[in-house]
Amino acid sequence: MKANQFLTPNLYTSINEVEILDCLVDFGYMPKEFSQNQVISFVKDENFYLVLFMVREDGQKGFLMYEILDFTMHEQELYMMSHLFRNLVASNKNNYTYRKAQYKLDEMLGMVPTFRALYKKRFDVDDYGMAA
Predict the structure, then answer these.
(1) From first to last of its 132 residues, what are the pLDDT tens digits of the chain?
(2) Three-state SS string across 12-65, please?
(3) Backbone angles phi, psi at 85, to 5 degrees
(4) What is the pTM of this model?
(5) Distance separating the N- and C-terminal Cα atoms of the chain
(6) Cα within 13 Å of Cα(6), Cβ side
């Protein structure tokens, strides 16, 4: 995997630690401790961020960040990511961390209509082939 890339036109991912830490600091979500796995999610400028911090069994630590651009209009990325994490939970690797990420995604899916209203977005199913 490249350090950062767009998986879809609206789903950006990064493992670049400097970029992720800068993002967390800039938006005020920097964790206070790094001794255990964490899942951080937040909305900023109509984009949804999901950041995973994981400590491997060998002690190595790393970040993984997903950003869905204009997430209220690109709901299919939330569904895709929720499905991805559901499969990762089934694989039993980092089960707690992946389950927490999946719950945060599912929670955001339920809140999309509220955010759409907040941002005054109109969603026309006819204009969008992947609508849920």
Answers:
(1) 577 898 999 999 999 999 999 999 999 999 888 888 999 999 999 999 999 999 877 878 889 999 999 998 889 999 999 999 999 888 877 688 999 999 999 999 999 888 888 888 776 554 444 444
(2) EEECCHHHHHHHHHHHCCCCCCCCCCEEEEEEECCEEEEEEEEECCCCCEEEEE
(3) -70, -30
(4) 0.84
(5) 29
(6) 5
